[in-house]
UniProtKB/TrEMBL annotation:
Signal peptide (UniProt feature, chain positions): 1-19
SMART domains, per the entry: CBM49 (SM01063)
The protein's name: Cellulose-binding domain-containing protein
Gene Ontology CC entries for this record: extracellular matrix
Single Gene Ontology MF annotation: extracellular matrix structural constituent
Organism name: Cavenderia fasciculata (Slime mold)
């Protein structure tokens, strides 16, 4: 149990540092679309979010790796769209589809449905410029 708490604390610290990393001029905005109780799943609460990734830099982004943590508990494997999921025990990383770039000053939107109503912690891990 101590190991899990320590690991979660480390992930939180990493996400805080990465979210405030000026190395990547990228912003991530969450927008709550809605939430509901799902009677077919024992009254569990779910929420849908739209995520907008904005390239605030002057170079086009060819690929971006967005990290997350245990807060990204998707409803099921079909509950995320417009990104590719690279996962381990949780959803670990999100990347753009291979055909998608984000031009300088432009944005890209994807979405997910998650357990509960709190948004998932998302942070930029790395950026590859075109």
């Amino acid at each position: 149990m101590k190991f899990i708490i320590l690991a979660l604390a480390m992930l939180l610290a990493i996400s805080f540092v990465a979210a405030h990393n000026p190395q990547f001029p990228v912003s991530i905005q969450h927008k709550l679309v809605g939430s509901w109780n799902d009677g077919s799943r024992g009254g569990e609460v779910f929420a849908q979010f739209d995520i907008t990734v904005t390239n605030d830099g002057q170079k086009n982004i060819k690929q971006i790796v967005i990290g997350t943590d245990a807060t990204c508990r998707l409803r099921d494997s079909t509950s995320i769209w417009n990104v590719q999921v690279i996962d381990g025990p949780f959803v670990d990383f999100l990347i753009l589809p291979s055909y998608q770039d984000i031009n300088a000053g432009a944005s890209y939107t994807f979405g997910y449905i998650i357990h509960g109503t709190a948004q998932a912690n998302l942070f930029v891990k790395s950026v590859i410029y075109a």
